[in-house]
UniProtKB/TrEMBL annotation:
<protein>
    <recommendedName>
        <fullName>glucan 1,4-alpha-glucosidase</fullName>
        <ecNumber>3.2.1.3</ecNumber>
    </recommendedName>
</protein>
<keyword id="KW-0326">Glycosidase</keyword>
<keyword id="KW-0119">Carbohydrate metabolism</keyword>
<dbReference type="GO" id="GO:0000272">
    <property type="term" value="P:polysaccharide catabolic process"/>
</dbReference>
<keyword id="KW-0378">Hydrolase</keyword>
<keyword id="KW-0624">Polysaccharide degradation</keyword>
<comment type="similarity">
    <text>Belongs to the glycosyl hydrolase 15 family.</text>
</comment>
<dbReference type="GO" id="GO:0004339">
    <property type="term" value="F:glucan 1,4-alpha-glucosidase activity"/>
</dbReference>
<dbReference type="InterPro" id="IPR011613">
    <property type="entry name" value="GH15-like"/>
</dbReference>
<dbReference type="InterPro" id="IPR012341">
    <property type="entry name" value="6hp_glycosidase-like_sf"/>
</dbReference>
<dbReference type="Pfam" id="PF00723">
    <property type="entry name" value="Glyco_hydro_15"/>
</dbReference>
<dbReference type="InterPro" id="IPR000165">
    <property type="entry name" value="Glucoamylase"/>
</dbReference>
<feature type="domain" description="GH15-like">
    <location>
        <begin position="24"/>
        <end position="418"/>
    </location>
</feature>
<dbReference type="InterPro" id="IPR008928">
    <property type="entry name" value="6-hairpin_glycosidase_sf"/>
</dbReference>
Length: 425
């Protein structure tokens, strides 16, 4: 993962402008992957860019790693991350929610994603104590600017997590909610806590509830202009739900792991990719015979495999989504071991049944079963990795890695899942 983070002594060149050193990476840039069409067969996408969301998720793992520093000084990797984030914010256009930047900190022409500033602010506050004094001031100013932007836009449509649709995103709303809650709770001096934060928190909680359709949480509400309120006019996009970003809204956002509506959605996510499901991956049947898996994709009608010119109906499982699902199991196990009652009801019953848990299962046994379920998922990721290198996806039939190589988020999600496991056990 660290090989995808630029520094003063470790730079990347822009593959679109070879030989133009002015386009080289700035320190602190976190690329999505070192893959681009010229060096990655059967891939026509260039990932040598910095996504705000991916960068924040990756930098959080740098924070949590608590790497030793020379003579107890600040973490230079995090100092550089903050400086690059500030550069991108200064250059962001057309909005301060711009999602993607070149490695030199200039905006890529698309898209606007309001989950990025929220996740970035959470990471900046988590990193604060590992920054040098000057960079701390930059971080505080950037958090305040992000919050100002989010308070003006949290009710608005945004581009969703997968950059495919514009509407009211469950994931973005969850990330924004966690950001506002984190800002209110922080003791970092200089962080503003505007009066509008508490009303925004209450509004976002209600907005998240409005995504429940009686069966699952809907990933996107697609009709603009009505504030995202529940309405029969919100169409369900065929094949887009259940969507893994509902689970990611728990891993990275504010949705509790004990939310039985989220667990109901998670159960259907797993069922659709196992044998007999609407988006069955044959590799999951093969893996099950080895005691591994299952692997998870994004949503049932996915077609993206790194090659947009030759879409694959049904798509493929991803390393990061599988690790995110494993982390949900680990986090829930930790909650149960800490004394939280098993969140078992008619909605969550299918989720717990997938781990052999019913209403009579003792808490300790339930926690162990959840850890075992998460372990099988992570072990499948390891088993199908290329000598521990992780691409974006695994082939849904063969299990071999495919799409872009060395996806940064794949590594970050693996590390995050293993941190959650360490707490659970």
């Amino acid at each position: 993962m660290s090989r995808n983070i630029a520094s003063y002594g470790f730079t990347f060149s822009d593959p679109q402008t070879p030989g133009d050193y002015s386009k080289d990476s700035k320190p602190g840039c976190i690329i999505a992957a070192p893959s681009f069409p010229a060096n990655t067969p059967r891939v026509d996408e260039n990932y040598v860019f910095n996504w705000v969301r991916d960068g924040a998720i990756t930098a959080m793992e740098v924070v949590k790693a608590e790497m030793p520093t020379h003579l107890g000084l600040s973490d230079q990797t995090l100092n550089e991350y903050v400086e690059f984030a500030d550069l991108c914010f200064a250059n962001a256009r057309p909005t301060k929610g711009h999602a993607c930047f070149t490695i030199a900190g200039e905006p890529r022409p698309w898209t606007e994603q309001n989950d990025g500033p929220a996740l970035q602010s959470i990471t900046l506050l988590a990193a604060f104590d590992r920054l040098d004094p000057g960079t701390q001031k930059t971080a505080v100013a950037l958090v305040n600017a992000n919050v100002e932007f989010l308070l003006a836009t949290y009710k608005d449509p945004t581009t969703n997590l997968w950059e495919e649709h514009i509407g009211y995103s469950f994931f973005a709303r969850s990330a924004q909610l966690r950001c506002f809650e984190t800002v209110l709770a922080t003791s970092v001096a200089g962080v503003d806590k505007p009066n509008g934060i508490q009303p925004a928190i209450e509004w976002l909680r209600q907005a998240l509830d409005s995504h429940w359709d009686g069966n699952i949480y809907i990933s996107m509400m697609t009709i603009p202009g009505d504030g995202g309120a529940p309405s029969p006019r919100h169409p369900v996009m065929y094949g887009y739900d259940p969507n893994i970003d509902i689970v990611q809204a728990s891993v990275y956002g504010a949705v509790p792991c004990t939310d039985t509506k989220m667990l109901a959605t998670a159960a259907q996510l797993r069922a659709q990719w196992e044998e007999g499901g609407s988006a069955f991956y044959p590799i999951n049947k093969t893996d099950r015979e080895l005691g591994l898996g299952p692997l998870f994709g994004r949503y049932p009608a996915d077609t993206y495999d790194g090659d947009t010119s030759h879409p694959k109906p049904g798509g493929h499982p991803w390393a990061l989504t599988t690790c995110n699902m494993a982390e949900l199991h680990y986090t829930l196990a930790t909650e149960i071991k800490a004394g939280t009652p098993l969140p078992f009801d008619e909605l969550s019953r299918p989720f717990f049944a997938q781990s052999g848990i019913d209403a009579s299962t003792p808490a300790d046994a339930a926690a162990r079963a959840l850890v075992a379920t998460g372990d099988a998922m992570v072990q499948a990721v390891i088993y199908h990795s290329d000598d521990f290198a992780l691409s974006e996806q695994f082939d849904g039939t063969t299990g071999y890695e495919r799409s872009v190589n060395n996806l940064t988020w794949s590594y970050a999600s693996y590390l995050s899942a293993l941190r959650a496991r360490a707490t659970a056990v």
